[in-house]
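Next up, a specimen:

>
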Amino acid sequence: MAREITNVATEIGPGSEYADVEVSSVSPLGLAWRRLLKKKIAMIGLVYILIFYALGSSAPLLTEAGIINHYREQDLEVSQQGPSPEHPFGTDVLGRDLLSRCIWAAQTTVIVTVATLLTGGLIMGVSFGLLSGYVGGWVDTAIMRIGDAFASLPTILMLILINATLKEQVRDAARSVEDFTGIGGIVASGAPDYFLVFGALSIFGWVGIARIIRAQILSLRETEFITAARATGASTKRIVFRHLLPNVSNIIIVSLSLGLAGIAGSEIVLTWFGVGIQPPHPSFGALIFEASGVRTVNAYPHLLIFPGLIVAGLLFGFNLLGDALTDVFTPKAR
């Protein structure tokens, strides 16, 4: 990490936009955060993302507190009404509050993106990249050839195929778990659908970040400080986690932030095609699909406008944040 501070210090000159930062007293992450704070548009995107994830994560609590309706709650007497003080986003054909359904749909996006980020990004992507780059040899060849095989397949088509063909098998497996353990509600909660969606996304999502990490590790493992660590008898575990991983942490952060938009978009596309999160659990893909008919758009445009704007804002916010993090962690690329 000291090497990172030194590199950053050499890039900050008298005319730099970061010249007012006291490098000697700030950690690399602290320095990166100060840089990010200077990106006003990126901070707007970050605030939007944080609000989106906070509302999505707290949907059950908001419902229990009576702030929003449950996504199943219907009132046919107010069906397909436009925005009003009682229903700020209007209501759908079954009289369900659209704002409440959008917040519950945000929960779906939160679950899928976080689970995919942890499994496909951190566990699989980073682990395979570190292993392939440091060990090399037949391990490197095997991991990269498997990655090439996944990368050569049409991702969206394969995701649709996996979700369409394995959905019933996964649900049957969940029912078997319910019968064996006596724990009810696993299928009713939509857990099999969530598992299948983020599992499929993880299988195809680890390749890109693994390749990036591998390329960096290949260059780092021959440097002097790694050679010195080997000479002093440091174990492979210590070299990988103490020396190599901290030096690629900036790349991991940037790669994962850039990949979040793709994960969220893929989940929405899968549900739009009818093979993602299934009703009655709300998803932005289902909300947009239900409102995308010509007659529906002409008669009740609010059903498409509000979910569409929320999704567009989320994807735009992810892209703004990813670009800003790229600039923050790789200032030489400016």
User: Anything to note?
Assistant: The CA atoms of residues 174 and 180 lie 10 Å apart. The two ends are 22 Å apart (CA to CA). The mean pLDDT is 84.
